[in-house]
Amino acid sequence: MTTNNLPQDEASCPAEGILKQLSGKWKPQIFRLALDGPVRFNGLLRQLPGSNKQSVATALKELEEADILVKTVVQEKPLHIEYTLSEKGHAMVSVFRSMEGFLS
Amino acid sequence: MTTNNLPQDEASCPAEGILKQLSGKWKPQIFRLALDGPVRFNGLLRQLPGSNKQSVATALKELEEADILVKTVVQEKPLHIEYTLSEKGHAMVSVFRSMEGFLS
DNA sequence: TCAATTAGTCAAAAAAACATGACTACCAAC
DNA sequence: GTTGGTAGTCATGTTTTTTTGACTAATTGA
Question: Domain HTH hxlR-type: where (chains A, B) (predicted)?
Answer without folding.
Answer: 13-104
